[in-house]
Every structure is written in C-alpha cells, then in structure tokens.
Design brief:
This protein has a domain of 132 residues: P-loop containing nucleotide triphosphate hydrolases (Rossmann fold). Helix content is 32%, strand content 23%. The chain has 9 helices and 10 strands.
C-alpha cells in the first residue's frame, strides 16, 4: 500500500507556555488536493511551517511519502520532494522571470555547487525554465525583472518557482491573497494545471478557491483539526459552521518573528 504523501501524528507546537498546535493528526493521500482552512489565529501558518521544517515540532511525528522528516531542515525536506510558497512573495526582484526560474531548477538537475558551469551554457536548465515559464503564462515577460511584474504575475512566478524543482508535494500559502476575482479565477486554473498529478496542500481564506480546487478540506480551530472531509461534507458540518460564525480563534497566532 502506497504511503500517504503527508502524515502528521499527534503534532504539537508551543511557543513558551502558549500551545499553538494541539495534537494534529492528518493524512493526505498522494495526488490529493487538500485545503487547510480555519479562522484567524487557528494555527494554519504554524502548521505549514512545521511541515516544511521552518519550525521544529514540540512533539509528534511528520512523514513525507513514508519517510520521517520530523527533525529535518527545510532544505533537506525540499530535496526529499516537498516545495512551498509563502504568503509574501519570495522572489529575486532584480532578476528576470527567466533567471528566477532557472535558479529554481538548478539543484534538481544535479548542478548543486558546480561553480565551474556557465549558466548560459546549461541547455537543460534553460529548457526546464522555459517550460515552466510557458506553463505559468509568463513567456512575454521573460526578460522583465520580477520587481516590475504586476502582483498577480508575481504570484504566478512564485507558483512557478515552487513547482520548478519537480517536487511531488506542493504547499501553497494563501496563493490568491490580494487578488481580484478575475485574477483569482485565473490563479485557480493555473494551480489546477501545474499541480496535475502532484499532491497539493494549501492554506486559503477564499472559500470559492477552496471549494473550487480541493478534493478534501481540513478545518483547524485553536490548533486542532475539528473536521477533515469532502467539500460537501465540510460545507454541511455544524461544528465547522459554528467555528466560523461563532468567532472562535479570533486571536492572532503567537509566533516569534524569526523562524
């Protein structure tokens, strides 16, 4: 039996005496599109940071494709097949669209710390970057600096960088935040296309995006998963409705500013 793409067993995280994640158990199947939703302060960003290794767990276990990554560093988890985006764009502003994508593909192509290679001569890196650039619809902006792109284009480039290394588990943190409805609709279509055949886990506040993309949805309230089910079942779940309408989890998450 194929292991879950992501498996969390009694994962907990405290900052000082404040417990933010309170025993999360969650399994996400390979190839599944899974959304994590919840009110402000529920612990969603903290959970993402634990999965990607940015924060260390206080207790519990995290597995990626059956391998224990609980104590792994972010770059080690990335090399094992997980990539993530952030709420705030994490781009090289002075590099072009193409150059940002080429940087993103180098390690996965085996170049690692090969300082003796000239980037301009790396045909495979150029071709992979151009393929990703076409998939995210930024061909015409190939030589434009990332800092000069529109906000929606920057988010598309961020998604492109996330998938460029070939990871099979993709974490997207608020991928449509700050977008207009038309921009959001285009982003949903892009995400659907570029994550085809991959495992997608996303944190998202826009419920139209969540219900338009997710195969399953987990609801996090006060650091605990109160429901994990199909979109239709989540929509009809009384506890979920109460969590959103009753104002639970209104406080902001208590996290240190550093990772």
């Amino acid at each position: 039996m194929k292991p879950a793409a992501l498996h969390l067993a009694d994962v907990r995280k405290s900052f000082g005496k404040t417990e933010i994640i309170r025993g999360v158990n969650l399994s996400i199947a390979a190839g599944e599109r899974h959304a994590i939703i919840g009110p402000n302060g529920a612990g969603k960003s903290t959970l993402f940071n634990l999965i990607s290794g940015r924060f260390g767990v206080s207790s519990g276990r995290i597995e990626l494709n059956g391998a224990d990554v609980t104590r792994k560093k972010p770059f080690e988890i990335n090399r094992m097949g997980l990539a993530r985006s952030f709420q705030i764009n994490n781009l090289f502003g002075n590099l072009s669209v193409f150059e940002n994508l080429r940087c993103a593909v180098l390690w996965s192509l085996g170049y690692k710390y090969s300082f003796w290679h000239k980037l301009s001569q790396l045909k495979d890196a150029r071709e992979r970057a151009e393929q990703v650039m076409e998939r995210i619809g930024l061909n015409r902006r190939r030589d434009t600096k990332a800092s000069l792109l529109t906000y929606a284009e920057q988010r598309a480039l961020e998604i492109g960088i996330t998938i460029a290394g070939g990871a099979d588990v993709i974490l997207l943190d608020e991928p449509t935040a700050g977008m207009s409805r038309s921009e959001s609709d285009r982003a949903v279509q892009l995400i659907r296309e570029v994550t085809e055949g991959k495992t997608l886990v996303m944190v998202e506040h826009d419920m139209s995006v969540v219900f338009g993309l997710a195969d399953r949805i987990s609801v996090l309230v006060y650091g605990e998963v109160i429901a994990s089910d199909t979109p239709q079942a989540i929509r009809e779940n009384a506890a979920v409705q109460e969590a959103y309408l009753g104002g639970h989890g209104a406080e902001e998450e208590t996290e240190p500013a550093h990772g």
